[in-house]
Amino acid sequence: MPYCPSCGKEVAEDDEFCPKCRAPLKEPRLRPVRRRDEKDEKDERDEKDEKGEKHEGDQAGAIVGGLVVVWLGVSFALRNMGYFPWADMGGVFLLGLGVILILRGLWAYSKTGVLDQGFGYVVGGGFVALLGAAVVFQVNDWWPFFIIGLGAVIVLRALMAQSRNPRP
Ligand SMILES: [Zn+2]
């Protein structure tokens, strides 16, 4: 079967116009193309998509890196204004870092719709944020938070597995 040279839809041999986009098919300039040509076009598109995805990944990395630097500056500024003592500096930074990682994970999830894509970021960011919170709020025995986090991870994993393979 020939294909519309304009939109790539399959058309009948004797169609004068493409039924989908109305492009003329009978003019010599716009002769319907065969599958081989269409495949080449498609391959080109796939290649572009892959490049776009890679670019998006680079972009996300740059945004996260920039946010971390901004947050480092903000936490130093807040410290200089006397919002928290030097001892809490590391904790405040970790807390912000964790939040940034969680946001990165949620962003990846919203972009792809695949929970696994952002899961590592959310879990890692959650632990970093918990660690920072433990320092800032001077929770010396912060191991309960670890257990809470671990439990949350197990619950999330279970929910994900269920949404991937829904039971009848
Ligand atoms: Zn068409």
Mean pLDDT: 77
**Count of helices?**
4
Q: What is the succession of H and E elements? A: HHHH
For this structure, the quaternary state is: single chain
Structure description:
With 168 residues, the chain is mostly helical. It contains four helices and no strands. The longest helix is centred in the middle third of the chain and has 46 residues, at 35-80. The mean pLDDT is 77. It binds zinc ion (ZN). Zinc ion is lined by residues 4, 6-7, 9, 18, 20-21, 23.
Q: Which features does this protein show?
A:
168 residues, mainly alpha, 0% strand, elongated, binds zinc ion
Short description:
With about 170 residues, this protein is mainly alpha-helical. It contains four helices and no strands.
Question: What layout of secondary structure does this protein have?
Answer:
Layout (H helix, E strand, L loop, with lengths): L34 H46 L8 H24 L2 H22 L6 H22 L4
Helix pairs in contact: 1-2, 2-3, 3-4
The chain binds zinc ion.
